[in-house]
Amino acid sequence: MLTSAVAFDDSYFRDPHQFYRQVQQNGPIHRFTTPSGVHGWLVTSDRLARTVLTDPRIGKGRDTMLGVSTDDSASIGLQRRLLRYGTEWVVTHMLGSDPPEHTRLRRSVADYFTPRAVSTLEPRIRTLANEFVESMDSTAPVDLVSALACPLPVAVICEVTGISRHHQQRIERSSAILSDVTVAEGRQLRTASIDFARLILPTFAARRLRPRDDLITSLTRQMSAGAIDLKEALSTVSLLLIAGHETTSNLILGTMLSLLGNPDELQRVRSDPTRLNAVLDETLRTNPPLPVATLRQAQSNFDLAGQRINRGELLMVSLLAANHDPESVTDADTFDADRQVRHISFGTGIHHCLGARLARTEALAAITNLLEHYPTISLAVPAESLRWRRSIFFRRLEALPVHVSREAGQ
Question: The domain containing residue 31 runs over which residues?
Fold first, then answer.
């Protein structure tokens, strides 16, 4: 089978939707290379995406989180450089492991993300959302990134873990680097990982002396019982701080951008707030917070859609492309909250997003509060001037300036 070679260049960062439309014309599987030299196989069809995310021949580990394949010397050199920079502790968590380690590490925090736990937390989430929305200055354009979409998820995941929310800027700055090894440089990763360690470690020390009802206290007790070690505990908190706010921030921003670009849909949501759930799902399909799933690695040699995959090679699943697969979705580029299509934006299989329910709850609270407080909301800049973070793994607006008014029609 002949495949095309895909380079994640400026055309991807400018318009990933158009990028994948062109890629999909050449088949469902392609060679890829990222700006930092990570390479492997890119999957773009819905059927193959679900296969890769659940196939037992394809696994995860520290190499996949570092973007390292084991099929050539260049990747081995990359791994050595990354390990020399001291970033390996950041990827010693559930997302970088297979069972039985994955099962143990996921179980260590799962109680904080159950339906009951999220329901218990929901009133606090609504209160926080209300506080951020109330504090907006409606006399000038409001940047929804800095005013709501980032501070709310950071505040929530900080309350869950026990980290002080006063570290919001540090968390955002370092997680922007640690969340995407496909574009970050080694020295950047080292600086960010050191900053995260310095941010997280004091809370573990404090909880040993003064336990609280938070996740770090729970992990501290599990460490004492031998169920998890310090590196794993630190890495787990790091993962939750990154994933716990990056994905939710992107979901809030993506949903608001969808509504602002579809005035009729915005009006329907104002008339029937319960419709927001369907809008969230269509946003997840059309503009997933993570355009690609975290990397996987072939555990053996096998064929995939007629293409030979060698042991050690990396596989990247494009969730965005799979959600727009013309073989699975009709008129995929049209935003239609009434469509009944199963997206895979939270993944599938054992690595299905643990915080999916929490992310939805936060997005609902943020957008509901915003729409209730401001009958009039509009973009303060042309949509084509909006800028996105230069990342393969996260779809994040740099800013989303809007005009808000408490008066209808203003």
Answer: 5-405
- pLDDT grade for 2, boundaries at 50, 70 and 90: very low
Distance separating alpha carbons of residues 96 and 257, to the nearest angstrom? 32
pLDDT at residue 87, as a whole number? 60
Contact 305/29 with Cβ under 8 angstroms? Answer: yes
Let me know if residue 205 belongs to a domain: yes
Residue 176 sits in a domain whose CATH number is: 1.10.630.10
Backbone angles phi, psi at 271, to 5 degrees: -75, -30
Q: What gap in Å lies between CA 156 and CA 163, rounded to an integer?
A: 10
Radius of gyration of the chain (CA): 21
36 within a domain of the structure (yes/no): yes
Backbone angles phi, psi at 151, to 5 degrees: -65, -35
- Of 189, 366, 388, which Cα lies nearest the Cα of 291? 388
Question: Which distant-in-sequence residues (6+ apart) come within 8 Å of 202 by Cβ?
Answer: none
CB atoms within 10 A of CB 74: 12
Give 273-284 pLDDT, tens digit per residue.
999 999 999 999
Q: Indicate the number of domains in the chain.
A: 1
- Reported as a single tens digit per residue, the pLDDT across 32-81 is 988 878 889 999 999 999 999 999 999 998 778 777 766 554 545 455 55
Residue 410 in any domain: the answer is no
Strand runs labelled E in 53-101: 58-59
**72, 40 in Cβ contact below 8 A?**
no
Q: What's the mean per-residue pLDDT of the chain?
A: 89
Q: Which two tokens stand for residue 397?
A: 């607006």
- Give the integer Cα–Cα distance in Å for 75 and 68: 5
Of the candidates 168, 170, 395, the residue with the CA atom closest to the CA atom of residue 387: 395
Which residues make Cβ contacts (< 8 Å) with residue 362, sequence separation at least 6? 125, 129, 152, 153, 156, 248, 252
Q: Is the dihedral of CA 140, 143, 144, 147 positive or negative?
A: negative
> Which tokens in the block code for residue 56?
């037992």
Look up residue 146 and give its DSSP letter: I
pLDDT at residue 392 is higher than 90: no
> 37: left (phi > 0), else alpha (psi -120 to 50), else beta?
left
pLDDT tens-digit series, residues 288-321 = 999 999 899 999 999 999 999 999 999 999 999 9
Under 8 Å between Cβ of 64 and 34: no
What does DSSP assign to residue 333? T
